[in-house]
């Protein structure tokens, strides 16, 4: 039977690449994001499967509830929820960071992910099958200067994923957390408020992960046999690794 995936943040980067790969594999899709033209473009592009698009800001609880309550009969059973919508804003140290930007990250990466999960999970538990794949980050496990609230939102995503598994134990529903490192998408353009030069500098001289790399990881996780739960997958490009602890020396 044809499966259906709901992908948040499908208008760009990882979400878009996942939409393309899952369509190629024959999955029907529910695609959401705030940019309507991009959703329409995807709708025109992905012609081999049934695609339902919804303009939805995941920060808005009622919009999320309406999106899920308003799914057409053809898309009402969600087999896979990919909680991908998210963003980082700024890279300033905590004492200089913009509190409004912190709130947007919390509202999107934490509260938005909570809203979509809470709206979709009951039917998965009721049907005794389904899979939630959350988009975490290496920033959820590893601190770096300027990651402050962004990294903390992704730590939430990691622990929420684990706790979901504990809650729905025995239901047959799977939960996974994908934790990518450096990957080129619109992520840095968003982080630096549209400053393309600053964004390009992040990837200069590197071979970062691509959205396709992440889509293939997500698809692999989704395609395991139903008795296998991949708890978490951390993926970095070869050019990325850890640094020693920073030691401040006097004098
Ligand atoms: P992009 O900026 O390319 O894509 C982000 C997507 O999220 C867009 O489709 C955007 O759609 C959507 N989005 C943002 N805010 C909202 C909102 N309020 N409501 C609905 N959709 C929203 O970045 P990536 O593809 O790189 O990021 C995807 C996820 O991966 C994020 O959660 C990010 O934190 C995470 N990640 C990214 C890494 C990277 O280095 N690129 C590494 C690790 C994790 P629209 O603007 O149309 O609403
Ligand atoms: C995105 C990866 O290292 O910029 O989550 O935080 S990083």
Question: TL;DR?
Answer:
This protein has 8 helices and 7 strands; from the N terminus they run E-H-E-H-E-H-E-H-E-H-E-H-H-H-E.
Describe the structure.
The protein is an alpha/beta fold and 251 residues long. The chain has one domain (4-235): NAD(P)-binding Rossmann-like Domain (Rossmann fold). It is 42% helix and 15% strand. The protein has eight helices and seven strands. The protein has helices at residues 13-24, 36-45, 61-69, 99-127, 148-167, 187-191, 196-203, 211-222, and strands spanning 4-8, 28-33, 51-55, 80-83, 130-135, 173-180, 232-235. Strands 3-2-1-4-5-6-7 form a seven-stranded parallel β-sheet, sandwiched between helices. Strand 5 (130-135), helix 5 and strand 6 form a beta-alpha-beta unit. Helix 1 crosses helix 8, helix 3 runs parallel beside helix 4 and helix 4 runs parallel beside helix 5. The longest helix is centred in the middle third of the chain and has 29 residues, at 99-127. The N and C termini lie far apart (69 Å). The mean pLDDT is 98. The protein binds NADPH dihydro-nicotinamide-adenine-dinucleotide phosphate and 2-hydroxyethylsulfonic acid (8X3).
């Amino acid at each position: 039977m044809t499966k259906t995936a709901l992908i948040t943040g499908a208008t760009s980067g990882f979400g878009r690449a996942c939409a393309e790969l899952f369509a190629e594999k024959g999955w029907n899709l529910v695609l959401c994001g705030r940019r309507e033209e991009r959703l329409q473009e995807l709708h025109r592009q992905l012609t081999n499967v049934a695609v339902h698009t919804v303009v939805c800001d995941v920060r808005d609880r009622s919009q999320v509830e309406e999106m899920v309550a308003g799914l057409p009969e053809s898309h009402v059973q969600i087999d896979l929820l990919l909680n991908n919508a998210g963003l980082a804003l700024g890279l300033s140290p905590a004492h200089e960071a913009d509190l409004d930007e912190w709130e947007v990250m919390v509202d999107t990466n934490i509260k938005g992910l909570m809203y979509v999960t809470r709206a979709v999970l009951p039917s998965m538990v009721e049907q005794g099958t389904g899979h939630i794949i959350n988009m975490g980050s290496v920033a959820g496990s590893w601190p770096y200067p300027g990651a402050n609230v962004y990294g903390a939102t992704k730590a939430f995503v990691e622990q929420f994923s684990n706790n979901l598994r504990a809650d729905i134990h025995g239901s047959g529903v799977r939960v996974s957390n994908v934790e990518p490192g450096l990957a080129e998408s619109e992520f840095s353009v968003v982080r630096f408020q549209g400053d393309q030069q600053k964004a390009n500098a992040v990837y200069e001289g590197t071979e970062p992960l691509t959205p396709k790399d992440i889509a293939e990881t997500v698809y692999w996780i989704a395609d395991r046999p139903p008795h296998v739960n991949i708890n978490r997958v951390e993926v970095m490009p070869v050019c990325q690794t850890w640094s020693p602890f920073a030691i401040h020396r006097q004098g």
